Amino acid sequence: MRFGQAAFLWLLCLVPALGALMAWAAVSRKRALARYGDPRLVLGLRDGTPTGWRAARAAMTLAAVALLAVSAARPQHGSRTEVVSRRGIDVVVCLDVSKSMLARDVAPSRVERAKAELERLLDEEPGDRVGVVIFAGDTMEYPLTTDHEAATRFFRDANPWEFPVQGTSIGRALSAARDLLRRDPLAARRSKVILLITDGEDLDGDPVAAAREAAGDGIQVYIDAIGSAAPEPIPAYSPDGRPVGYERDSRGEIKHTQFTPQMEEQLRSVAREGNGQYFRPRNGEVGIDAVRRQLARLRRSEIAESQQTVYEEIAWPFVVPAFLLLFAAAVLVPERVRRASPPKERAA
Question: Against a cut of 0.70, is the pTM above it?
Fold first, then answer.
């Protein structure tokens, strides 16, 4: 057995002190009566509680005080571990839908494969809140929600040709994701993650500074980089989504996208400044599985932080007898007993 408030056990010191005080009062009463004559005759002439009853009431009162002192210390027995307040994780996905994400070095294309893997991630992790930022040269946002199907519908049909401003602005996407988390009142009490899925061609903004600002708000920035180191042509599509060959530059040459060491270094810097991690899958793959494992570790860490050992309170076996003793002392023990007649003197 243990005590949740062991400091209250000092109240047990009152029991012997009260006992000594009661004993001193009894002795003082006996001495006072002796001054009036033979104590036996004096007791026979007065009304009052007999000595035996008085001692019983004192014993019951002292026992009740001792039991109440123990109950005040919160006796506990046994234990169990439980999650008392799981905060949960808020994840804002920043999905790059710029034209370079149409490259087919990842089948069927970078952007379509990223959507499929991201949809699988959301299906398998239903407990988190999810927000979405799709971006090219500009951004479109979907607020945090536990309705993963609604979030999936938002990015499922997003395509590069729907963005009037082309390019790739990673910094702007990170800032938009940070604003989503800052505006949501529940996010302040939860773990916060930005997952950036991109091929790394940042043509606008300062993504390193944006990641640093996000880290200042307690947000971790994870980066899943897509694309091969070999040059890959960029397919072209009409405004209604029909393939029309390949993107060409002002000289009529086919445009290529290529994941360069400079891009990788920039993305590593973004993850480092964002207190997150950088994931670089093998060619032809999307690193969602590595992201899933990292999110699982974050959930386990959060659950461990919110676990505590709970002990069973067992104060009632002490409180109930204490009140029964007090009731008995007040009701069952007579306060005064009237003498029928004084005791007769013995004949000389």
Answer: no
